[in-house]
Amino acid sequence: MNATATPPLLVSRLDCERLESLLEQPLAQGLNTDALRRELDRAELLEPAEMPDDVITMNSTARFRDVNSGGERELTLVYPKDADGSPEKVSILAPVGSALLGLHVGAVIEWPVPGGRTIKLEVLSIRYQPEASGELHR
């Protein structure tokens, strides 16, 4: 897959409803939420029980590889209230959080890093996904 192509995007209906509600709250005002809005607009919505287990949903923990360096890291995509500043958690309202939502294992995204550079991250695996664990109404 071409790393600059926009990967297909699957989002659970429940996540979409919660994220649209979040975008209406004062906490999201003034933040650059356009990318998240665009992602939700283009997403194919699925019921939580229909979500494939190789897709990043809210509260999923995924393993990534830096395509250039080969380094690996694990991230959990969280709602802002759960973003505690730890490097393992990324808020959906952060630019990279918006980019992670709905990605499949094998997808590659570009991630901006300090200094104006970007790195390419490949989704290697999903260690935890609420829907795959039967947590359909979390």
Automatic annotation (TrEMBL):
Domain called Regulator of nucleoside diphosphate kinase N-terminal: residue spans: 7-45
One annotated GO molecular function: DNA binding
Source domain of life: Bacteria
UniProt domain Transcription elongation factor GreA/GreB C-terminal: residue ranges: 52-128
InterPro entries with a match to the protein in the record: GreA/GreB_C_sf (IPR036953), Rnk_N (IPR029462), Tscrpt_elong_fac_GreA/B_C (IPR001437), Tscrpt_elong_fac_GreA/B_fam (IPR023459)
GO biological process, one term: regulation of DNA-templated transcription elongation
NCBIfam families, A to Z: PRK05753.1
PANTHER family: REGULATOR OF NUCLEOSIDE DIPHOSPHATE KINASE (PTHR30437:SF5), TRANSCRIPTION ELONGATION FACTOR GREA (PTHR30437)
Name assigned to this protein: Nucleoside diphosphate kinase regulator
Originating species: Lysobacter concretionis Ko07 = DSM 16239
Classification of source organism: Bacteria, Pseudomonadati, Pseudomonadota, Gammaproteobacteria, Lysobacterales
